[in-house]
Amino acid sequence: MFGVVAAEPIAPRELLRDAPRSLRALSRAHPDGWGLAIHTANDWIIHRDTTCAADSARYGELSESIATRLMLAHVRQKTVGATALMNTHPFRRGPFVFAHNGTIKDVMALVARSSPERLAQIEGDTDSERLFAFVMTHVDAAGDVERGVTTAVRVLHSLGEIGSASFLLSCGARLYAHRLGRALFVLRRGGATMIASEQLTGEAWDELPDKAFVVLAA
């Protein structure tokens, strides 16, 4: 899982494709699909596939050509839900995109705290999409993205051993990152901030503590 927010468009080819621990390299252990959510001037363009990114010519071509100020990327190792496009991250709801690492142990605790409207939007079988519905329910109730995600995170923490719920969420302006159970690392390069579930390069990435919630903006 990888996200970037930058003051000016950057080309993240190294992190997506060329670095020794790029997402493409990591996809050998996470072979069950890949997705790229790329923000343009006022919308998202999302590419997803169920193949392994390392074997995908389309992934290679896209990672070669991307230049953006904001993006989310994910390579999937399935735990809940079959290998299928509807189960492939990132997921989208209007201006929001979402990716998750980990496995939720008590999915029904999230479902019970999610609105019927958000649950009705779920297309696939994953715990990840149900976590997305849970987070968006709190955003809807708050009427503000940051307040809503903050509340969702507090509720998650109150549920005890809920499982692993590290996620990235973006509204198209900022990147919201939460670590619970699965690692997240941050790297700053000039006017760009990158966050990933692995240290994708040999640089000094900063590891977020468990239960951390951060908001990244250009």
Could you please describe the fold and organization of this structure?
- About 25% of the residues lie in helices and about 30% in strands.
- By secondary structure, the chain is of the alpha+beta class.
- Strand 9 (about 185-190) and strand 10 form a beta hairpin.
- It starts with a strand and ends with a strand.
- Please state the overall shape, judged from the principal axes of the Cα atoms: globular
Strand order of the largest sheet: 3-2-4-1-10-9-11
What is the CATH class?
A: Alpha Beta
How many E-type strands?
Answer: 12
What is the count of structural domains? 1
Helix and strand topology:
Elements: E1 2-10, H1 13-18, H2 23-26, E2 34-39, E3 44-49, H3 57-65, E4 68-75, E5 91-93, E6 96-101, H4 107-111, H5 116-119, H6 127-142, H7 145-158, E7 166-170, E8 175-178, E9 185-189, E10 192-196, E11 206-207, E12 213-216
Antiparallel strand pairs: 1-4, 1-10, 2-3, 2-4, 5-6, 6-7, 7-8, 8-12, 9-10, 9-11
Helix pairs in contact: 6-7
Short description, anyone?
The chain is built from seven helices and twelve strands. It is α+β, with helices and mostly antiparallel strands and 218 residues long.
Defining key terms:
12 strands, seven-stranded antiparallel sheet, alpha+beta, 29% strand, single chain, Glutamine Phosphoribosylpyrophosphate, subunit 1, domain 1, five-stranded antiparallel sheet, 218 residues, globular, 7 helices
